[in-house]
Amino acid sequence: MNKLILKRDNIIGMILVAMGFIGFLNTVMGEFSGGEGVGAHFFPQITFIIMGISGGIMIFEKSDEVKKEFLPVTPLPVSIFLLTGVLYFFMLRRFGLTGATLIYLIGMFMLLTPKPLKNFKSVLIPTAIILVIIHVLFNYIVELVY
Q1: How far apart are CA 40 and CA 31, in angstroms?
Q2: Where does a domain end: 41, 69, 97?
Q3: FRET label pair with 69: which of 2, 35, 92, 119, CA 20 to 30 Å apart?
Q4: Model's pTM, two decimal places?
Q5: What is the pLDDT of residues 6-23, one digit of tens each?
């Protein structure tokens, strides 16, 4: 069974490395390329670099290091996660970056936290921290106009 997991992880890792490399090249030479500094190409480039590094880790990770204590991934949480990502995209125009991010993060932490209404601090505290970081990053450091 470990050989099957290792082969699957190698294939997924190679796909991630290839997608990261191709996507990074597209941001450097494609329509995103806007010269030096922070621009429309910056965040996609960072994302593709992280994607490639993650794929490389998957390729070179030994099968003995695979932990067995993870819960199985079922289609329902994955579907909900993907659906909320699409909804977040559509909420950006309606509520702006800060409002859409607030709604998205509260929804995600409500899904991920066991007994979210009882542990509401574990929903609000990370949401507030992430929201402040995103707000400061986009409004004051990058000076994104939206």
Answers
A1: 9
A2: 69
A3: 119
A4: 0.51
A5: 567 788 889 999 999 998
